Amino acid sequence: MASGHIRSVLVTGSNRGIGLQLVKCFLEKPNPPQVVFATCRDPEGARAQELRHLASKHPNLAILQLETTDEASVKAAARKVEARLGGSGLNVVINNAGVMPPCTLESATAKDMLDVYNINLVGPMLVTKELLPLLKKAAHGSNQKGMSCGKAAVINMSTVLGSIEKTPEHYFSFPVVSYRCSKAALNMLTKCQSMGYKDDGILCTAVHPGWVKTELGSEQADLTVEESVCGIMKVLCNLSEKQHGVLVTWEGNVLPW
Predict the structure, then answer these.
(1) Are strands 246-249 and 203-208 parallel, antiparallel or unpaired?
(2) Gyration radius of the chain over CA positions
(3) What confidence tens digit (pLDDT) does each residue in 112-157 have?
(4) What pTM value is reported for the model?
(5) 22 with 96: CB under 8 angstroms?
């Protein structure tokens, strides 16, 4: 089932890795969104140079400053999104920004855990909360039946490492305790959002992008960024009620919580 045309999408953490590649793929679609909102902490910094280059070639790309853990920053970005949309709703929010610092049971501190939770869990919660009115507007204004990214959707970038059931399979290879715990919490947030936003017709899905060669995933990873995001884009096009409140892989397979 096709999702229909995505008229607007917002991607957090879009100055590098998976986020940047998602932005590129949306811009390169034969029928691209009317506006792609690419957010990052420092749009004027050296790490956002490639994003700025893209914006010089694509007038439908809007770069926004956004610190996902700062409520004032999130609110300011949401106002800019609303102004740019000019009365239209926002189809898709992709909560991609995240961190995975080294952290074992022996080395973990309270600050380690809380810092990672703040970025990987609280950030997506705040962003979605502030953009919810625009997501509702898109959903309520759509004539599409069912759920899809062409109507309204929240996509939380998660990981198999947040799956409690799968933990015994790869714990010793990737202990990263603070990351695992924060993503398990993000999975719960996704499930809660799927219940809370169901009546508004907003699709809520968590996506595992695979083990990807990024700053976060390292060069030892299995997938290139291009391979992962190509798969994710296909998954987004085919999401429906069947994947509402579910964790799926970049290949579209369902993972256990």
Answers:
(1) parallel
(2) 17
(3) 999 999 999 999 999 999 999 999 999 999 999 999 999 999 999 9
(4) 0.96
(5) yes
Long-range contacts of 174-178 (CB under 8 A, 24+ apart): 175/103, 175/104, 175/105, 176/100, 176/101, 176/102, 176/103, 177/103, 177/104, 177/105, 177/108, 177/113, 178/101, 178/103, 178/108, 178/112, 178/113, 178/115, 178/116, 178/117
Helix ranges restricted to H, 63-200:
71-85, 110-117, 123-140, 167-170, 177-196
CA geometry: angle 91, 97, 101, nearest 5 deg: 160
The yes-or-no verdict on residue 30 having pLDDT over 50 is yes
User: Which residues have a Cβ under 8 Å from the Cβ of 173 and sit 6 or more positions away?
Assistant: none
Helix (H, G, I), strand (E, B) or coil at 92: strand
Task: Give the neighbor-by-neighbor strand order of the sheet with 153-157.
Answer: 61-65, 35-40, 8-11, 92-95, 153-157, 203-208, 246-249, 254-255
